[in-house]
Amino acid sequence: MTAVPETAPRSDRAYAPQLRRSAPTEAAGYAAFAESVFQNHDGQIPQKYRELIAIAVALTTQCEMCLESHVKAAADAGASQEEIAEVSFVAAAIRAGGAYTHGMKAMRMLEAHQ
Fold first, then answer.
1. b/e map 96-111, b = 16+ CB within 10 Å
2. Per residue in 48-101, pLDDT tens?
């Protein structure tokens, strides 16, 4: 029989303040950088496309928190369900392409080893 914990575990997001307090300079730099990228309303890439790019990267890096925040931001910027679905397949194709091209590296490495 498994013991049931008395309290539910805290989500990872609950540790964000602790992480920021533990490295305040780095956290501030990261926050400023991220804000400059996603709040650049004078840039050539519209906000919706910035968020769709972020979704593709989050899918590829498998960052669940990034995915959650950028899907919400993309929807707020006007992204449709169909656009998010297409981005998912673009990311999947690129990730598969990475495995294919690294397979070529593996063949080169094998050849060098033999």
1. eeeeeeeeeeeeeeee
2. 999 999 999 999 999 999 999 999 999 999 999 999 999 999 999 999 999 999
d(CA 55, CA 68) in angstroms, rounded, equals: 9
Q: Of 85, 87, 53, whose CA–CA distance to 70 is shortest?
A: 53
DSSP 73-95: HHHHTT--HHHHHHHHHHHHHHH
pTM: 0.81
Domains with residue ranges and CATH for the chain:
27-113 (1.20.1290.10)
Tell me the two tokens of residue 81: 């369900």
Q: Burial level of 59, CB count in 10 A (0-12/13-18/19+)?
A: buried
